[in-house]
Specification:
The protein is an alpha/beta fold and 304 residues long. The chain is built from 13 helices and 10 strands. Helix content is 45%, strand content 13%. Strand 6, helix 7 and strand 7 form a beta-alpha-beta unit.
Length: 304
């Protein structure tokens, strides 16, 4: 029987094309076969919740994902990246940029431009930031309503008249461009001498309510602020840049999976809002719910 050589060649080419398609056209490893995703969670509720959201969204697409508490703030998170203990983390564009650039004041309220600058810093340490979400969380300096009324204190600029006030918050406030250094540079207010290193959550809230500190550094999406009637001091001279939540991952992880992983994470970012963060933080801070339960509800509500 005579062989149809053209037909054989066509069949071979079709088979090759099908194999290439099945392998993702070189777009990276299959989620079931590639490296595991280990998500770093910093030492506050919002980070834990968003880490759980990333985990659930990735698992829904077949990735093997877990969460590793890094036990502190940004310096420990970056050490965990460097050590290979984690390869993904939820982050904040402006704050991470300023941490890496030595607090050069480059971050602005433009999330896209700030993320571009951030990626310039991340490239040299083998990390990359993906698309920023619309969810914004900035540092928030708050006082009790009693302190506000007694001192007539409603704006950050008015702190210049009260250098004796004691500020409490997370330890990185001493180096964070949107805390003590920013207050000094933008407002001429030096609260470094009286600063009390606490946390970014309940310990600081309890200290404020007990009168152990006069000003608390919290996060603007914290459900505690409205619940306790705290007064958020207005940033009347523009110290704070908008901190959009976004995923940061190792370039190694991005190269391993390509758009298989970046599409999932960018999809999360496209749906996460400031209102979502505030509502989820209330469930964590006020209602004492677990981050995984809070994240599961958000994932279900958003089609993951």
């Amino acid at each position: 029987m005579r062989t149809n050589r053209r037909g054989v060649i066509g069949a071979v080419l079709l088979a090759v094309a099908l194999v290439a398609t099945a392998c993702g056209s070189g777009d990276g490893a299959d989620p079931a076969d590639g490296p595991g995703v280990v998500i770093g969670s910093q030492d506050f509720g919002e980070s834990a919740i968003v880490a759980e959201i990333y985990k659930g969204a990735l698992e829904a697409e077949g990735f093997t994902a877990s969460i590793q508490a890094v036990g502190g703030f940004r310096d420990l998170e970056l050490a965990a990246f460097e050590a290979g203990d984690i390869n993904l983390a939820p982050e904040y564009a402006a704050s991470m940029l300023e941490f890496l650039n030595g607090f050069a004041g480059e971050a602005t309220g433009d999330a896209v431009a700030t993320t571009e600058l951030l990626n310039g810093e991340l490239e040299s340490i083998g990390l990359v930031a993906l698309e920023p979400s619309d969810a914004v969380d900035t540092n928030a300096l708050v006082v009790t309503s009693e302190t506000s009324q007694e001192l007539g204190l409603t704006k950050l600029s008015e702190l210049a008249d009260h250098p004796e006030l004691v500020l409490g918050g997370p330890p990185d406030c001493e180096t964070n461009a949107f805390c003590i250094p920013g207050l000094l540079e933008v407002y001429g207010v030096d609260l470094g001498a009286t600063f009390q290193p606490l946390d970014a959550g309940q310990i600081t809230v309890q200290a404020l309510e007990a009168g152990q500190i006069d000003i608390a550094l919290l996060f603007s999406t914290s459900g505690v602020i409205a619940d306790r009637g705290f007064v958020l001091l207005e940033d009347d001279q523009g110290m704070l840049a908008a901190d959009n939540v976004l995923p940061v991952l190792t370039t190694e992880l991005e190269e391993a999976y390509g758009s298989s992983i970046t599409d999932v994470l960018n999809d999360v970012s496209s749906k996460l809002t400031t209102a979502d963060l505030t509502a989820m933080n209330k469930r964590f801070d006020i209602d004492n719910e677990d981050p995984d339960d809070i994240a599961a509800d958000w994932l279900a509500d958003n089609g993951f």
